[in-house]
Amino acid sequence: MAEEVVYRKILSFLEEDAPFWDTTTDILIPKGVAVRARVVAKQRCVVACLDDVSYFLKRLGLEVKQLARDGDTVEEGAAVLEVTGSARVVLGVERTLLNILMHCSGIATEVRKLVELVRRVNSRVRVAATRKTLPGLRYFEKKAVAIGGGDTHRLSLSDAILIKDNHIRIVGSVEEAVKIAKASASFVHKVEVEVSTPEDAVKAAESGADIIMLDNMKPSEVARVAEELRKRGLRERVLLEVSGGITPDNILEYAKLDVDVISCGYITISSRAVDMSLDVVEVIRK
Amino acid sequence: MAEEVVYRKILSFLEEDAPFWDTTTDILIPKGVAVRARVVAKQRCVVACLDDVSYFLKRLGLEVKQLARDGDTVEEGAAVLEVTGSARVVLGVERTLLNILMHCSGIATEVRKLVELVRRVNSRVRVAATRKTLPGLRYFEKKAVAIGGGDTHRLSLSDAILIKDNHIRIVGSVEEAVKIAKASASFVHKVEVEVSTPEDAVKAAESGADIIMLDNMKPSEVARVAEELRKRGLRERVLLEVSGGITPDNILEYAKLDVDVISCGYITISSRAVDMSLDVVEVIRK
Amino acid sequence: MAEEVVYRKILSFLEEDAPFWDTTTDILIPKGVAVRARVVAKQRCVVACLDDVSYFLKRLGLEVKQLARDGDTVEEGAAVLEVTGSARVVLGVERTLLNILMHCSGIATEVRKLVELVRRVNSRVRVAATRKTLPGLRYFEKKAVAIGGGDTHRLSLSDAILIKDNHIRIVGSVEEAVKIAKASASFVHKVEVEVSTPEDAVKAAESGADIIMLDNMKPSEVARVAEELRKRGLRERVLLEVSGGITPDNILEYAKLDVDVISCGYITISSRAVDMSLDVVEVIRK
Amino acid sequence: MAEEVVYRKILSFLEEDAPFWDTTTDILIPKGVAVRARVVAKQRCVVACLDDVSYFLKRLGLEVKQLARDGDTVEEGAAVLEVTGSARVVLGVERTLLNILMHCSGIATEVRKLVELVRRVNSRVRVAATRKTLPGLRYFEKKAVAIGGGDTHRLSLSDAILIKDNHIRIVGSVEEAVKIAKASASFVHKVEVEVSTPEDAVKAAESGADIIMLDNMKPSEVARVAEELRKRGLRERVLLEVSGGITPDNILEYAKLDVDVISCGYITISSRAVDMSLDVVEVIRK
Amino acid sequence: MAEEVVYRKILSFLEEDAPFWDTTTDILIPKGVAVRARVVAKQRCVVACLDDVSYFLKRLGLEVKQLARDGDTVEEGAAVLEVTGSARVVLGVERTLLNILMHCSGIATEVRKLVELVRRVNSRVRVAATRKTLPGLRYFEKKAVAIGGGDTHRLSLSDAILIKDNHIRIVGSVEEAVKIAKASASFVHKVEVEVSTPEDAVKAAESGADIIMLDNMKPSEVARVAEELRKRGLRERVLLEVSGGITPDNILEYAKLDVDVISCGYITISSRAVDMSLDVVEVIRK
Amino acid sequence: MAEEVVYRKILSFLEEDAPFWDTTTDILIPKGVAVRARVVAKQRCVVACLDDVSYFLKRLGLEVKQLARDGDTVEEGAAVLEVTGSARVVLGVERTLLNILMHCSGIATEVRKLVELVRRVNSRVRVAATRKTLPGLRYFEKKAVAIGGGDTHRLSLSDAILIKDNHIRIVGSVEEAVKIAKASASFVHKVEVEVSTPEDAVKAAESGADIIMLDNMKPSEVARVAEELRKRGLRERVLLEVSGGITPDNILEYAKLDVDVISCGYITISSRAVDMSLDVVEVIRK
Hints:
Six copies of one chain form a homohexamer. By secondary structure, chain A is an alpha/beta fold. Chain A has two domains: 2-107 and 272-285, Aldehyde Oxidoreductase, domain 3 (Alpha-Beta Complex); 115-269, Aldolase class I (TIM Barrel, Alpha-Beta Barrel). Chain A is built from eleven helices and twelve strands. The longest helix of chain A has 33 residues, at 87-119. The interface between A and B is large, with 71 and 70 residues.
């Protein structure tokens, strides 16, 4: 997204937080006062969306120093951003910028944790997010996933084919669904199918699917699917994604298997924010 | 928010999920096919924002039956909504509606849990949310808080005065800040002050603050503040809010005290979604 | 409202005035020509929203000198703003900026007049606006009220409780309505009730309302209400607002009484613009 | 404007009045309650924009009966609109709809008064508005002018050429400005020139202007201009508009002259609202 | 349109092309890399909308040199624009800027061709566009027409009266329609009528129409209309526009006649783009 | 795109055509008059976007009968749509709906022609559009391409990787660019590379590109690339797209070769509209 587009998005967040004005600040803080303030991480984390927030703050007329880069792991107490400028502007924007950074850094931190966990047992497997993102925040959440080292997966319904259970129920069979999709989808889009049995996985591969998502299967079932595909010489032709109920507790059981992608919805839909605060470190009176 | 305004907001979420179209569904599902589908809660929860989602679905031309009401506690496996209509529309909107319901119900469920916990020891104290909401979602999150039985607290920077640490740092003292605010704020708005020491709490009450927020104080300190205020005959004149690091683990320690409000930021900024799915229960071919 | 948000609002006003372009100016004025021009008040007035307009003009690339500050009283013939830059831009924006300044200064001037009038007899009473504002202009009108020295009253339906006649008609009684509101409103919001009889005023105070609005009462009735409340020891607990048909002609009769707030709808809904013009004082050809 | 476009505009006004929700109504009024309510004019007036408001209310799900038509003169106490439906919706929209109707009817009433005044002495002259409209409300204000029987004049900078003093100052002379405009303006657009001396009026007519606006001229000067033009056989070729400081007090002096149009800025920029109220006449409990 | 309004419009085009981000560029191009690039016309053409595009690119932070001006005829291979700045920004915006310039220059080039063709036989006749413009692009297309030397004709339905066949069918007759329009249209707006027979053309002129559009008439019929009007002394009072099926192949047959305007819908609705490319001429690594 | 989203898009087009109102229609056509009207194709064509336009018209309150379906080939003179309802609404929307249908049907007709042409010599090759679409119209144009039987290619910069000449110039080599893209792109997105020499085509295939676009190559060169790839056993692993300067005149020379996709920019950027008109066939007076 162009920086100016992201800027406008964040401006609408600011507008949500002050439909008229920041009554407290407008009453208490004279126009001439400036401050220097720092955004401080109150726990170890991977910071995300600092670039976006910095651009936004500059556009509001503040001077900004980024003290960390997107993707950096910072320690508890580390300052990640320093802003200098109108106290009114800084205090008015405080909550909005913290909400974005805390949320996105929370996602990036969790993704990074999963990626590092998984890499210990399988250097080839990817950790991916899903479309279980919070409404209106997909750009930020998918970006945080990428910053954390994860795979963004589909950005929207418009950018790849993913045939799900409800589609198959209506079309009638996995083969038929894949056949139609291969014939009608643009040649630039891959075709993925969600299956819940090894049989359907094989059918999907034979029908020409590019990616097979094994939904809610136990590790042992997943292993069997991979085995079946290898046996039939189909394993090379498809990517295998496992999904459904995967958490830090059980992810290694899947990571050890012959799969290409592990996707987790909780990363975005149940994300845990990183605690951060904005501390005024200097008051500058003109 | 007028239903039509909420409708437009949700439509923009749908647009985010399909900047062009739902390629998969448009390719696989013929226009004439209709389905009956149910939204099913996959865990016990308090459902929230069903009204908003139902209105939205009706506006898209679907027939909707609400099988639960906002605020109801439903059991694992309970269907909360039934929609009938164009399969293309239902599948295209599936993820968007689930993301909203899962997120809002997650918040309402957590709030309800806290409210019930707290009531056991203090029937008078309120559980409140903060402005740590996810950008763009304040309406939905504050509404979920109210549905769960919590207090919404300030909806925005425009609807009450809340003097925070950074304001006081610039103004110079609690008393001065409260004095200015009382003089300049509209008579319809209350004046709240955040303090971190018992001394400042007393000063705030003496200066005429309507609400005092005790930030990051230990239960023992909070008790001392209340005691001080009572001693000086100030306790009746103010509401006491405690805030900062309060979780289900320590909330009862605060609830037992002579406080009016306990506020928790994690409810909204680190909310955990309720798992739900949309199941097609009937395919209707014309 | 963040300056950038106000800027976008004014830009939409400009767009309304030129859905395609300013045909006259584009045809007559060559691109290279610059002008220095002044906004001149053609009558004594309190200027308002100069800051907002100046920020807007700077964003359009003009050099701006504010020759007065928001809230200043300026004499007939005084220049309040000087802009220098592209003649095309200046002429294209002339009407839009004048319409805003003339309207807002008209409101501020009227408010200031009322405030000064009232202060002569009662230094404690406030003059307040209402929600009778022109659609789309609430930010500007409420700001002009504040600049004039008035109280903004509720900014919107979301920022305080105001129980009106129609609410009471549905709920059944003043007491019941106040009781419900006190139980359900957020602790940060005050509860105000509109009453039209002294009896209801007493009931409202007894039920715990924070503010009582005496609607369309004669001064003698208002006096009786205050007396009744004092007698019962309730006067200290509530703020008294008088409203309905109050104009410069009768405002002193109310101001003399024991009331806290006098609100007038005409200030915003029937405001009289201050006459201003934009005069080109120098043509600069490159 | 398409009804749906006007609907969206009014919806944005509603949003301005309730950035989150109508706290009072949502707390006090149960969902099941319906009301029948009437909009009543509290003074004699010409009603305007009833069609637009009615369409809007229908789109919010209310049943609407128009008891008067746009342009009707109604007596004090007359009901102009009856709405039936959800009490929550009716009360939530009350202020917004009243603000529109009061403002627009105020404009239409004033315009009608001027038109009737003028007609007594000159059946051919038109009363016109200007571009001194309140930002964001041009559609509504110009429509109210037309409903009152006035001429809308230019709707925007894009729909006719109007050469003003500042343009002439830059171009150098009236003749040169008219010449350029005639050569470059689209053949579908008329060319009007504002002049302040009889000499310039003659020059403008000789140069081919379609309309001449006599700005801030005394009646005697206007008479002289008309005489000059007649003498030179130019009167038939142009329309004469008088403008600047014209009020009900002096309008007849201009109306008696040989002019085609009298335009008044105060109609829109200093309009006086008609008093109206929304009265609940029946509470319907399900 | 104010430059900032055009900027926002183009930004929305950019958003259409990257609902999330430019995946390719974000992956391949490091943030620190800058480029110098040129927009090159790959065929002889009249360039249009360079000003608008340049302003847009500057607002995105790029340094811009215009190497041609709007309306210039440039030869095959000519560079018209040079931009220097972040490679990410340049590549992300490449397609959007080319699509605008190619489209608008295509229109301007075709208009210029027609204008020059027509001038050879009639120096007084104008070539005009119609309202057959591509949805959302009217500003750009009408501007390109003007840049090419054409007449923009009506910019929208709001800026002149044009009575068409369907209007007349409903009203009943040309005379009646013109009469109503003359009475009700603002004095600043001209009245044009579309007719398809010489008889109706005469009636329209007699009824006071300002412009008569002869729709889909053969040159011989058009000649007869002009003759009829001259005979009755009406020709001077009206402008004659011919329209319908006019192309470069037959335009001279119309241009030779006594008409004022020739309008062509194909210019905008079937425009042919000029081929242009953006070539990176230097890669600048920091 | 959800129908409601498309509806809003078309509404904005209508707004562009009537920033205030349709002056002509509002003056001439009484509110009570209804019409039955038909959209008639004035030349043989493939109709496109009828569904979208029909939904829009229904939302404006008109009764709509689709007389053809998207993708149907209709003969000259065929009616494709019949609308019945308010004459004001029908005439106000006439130009907007025609502009959409004429443009989209023009694209679909051209695509269908190419597809049928190509099929005669190669049943496997696809005809694809590019991102050379008119700003703001990508949804409609890509949909028209699909309706005509073409491949939409990338919908936006966000939905597949396409490494172009400018990317390679910055990265340094085809191999490096493909390598980075394969490592960083999401597993759901394909990687396509644009090359202009047979050598680069081979390198791209060897590096793992999914699709190779041969840009501006002569048929003989394309044949050589295919041959090279077959020789090295790489042909099966990649899709071959040819692009650049392909028109109906030379498309068969490419179609005969061993390629998978032929893409043409002119389809959308230089499309030729189908002529259509809206004819009122019945006037219904109430």
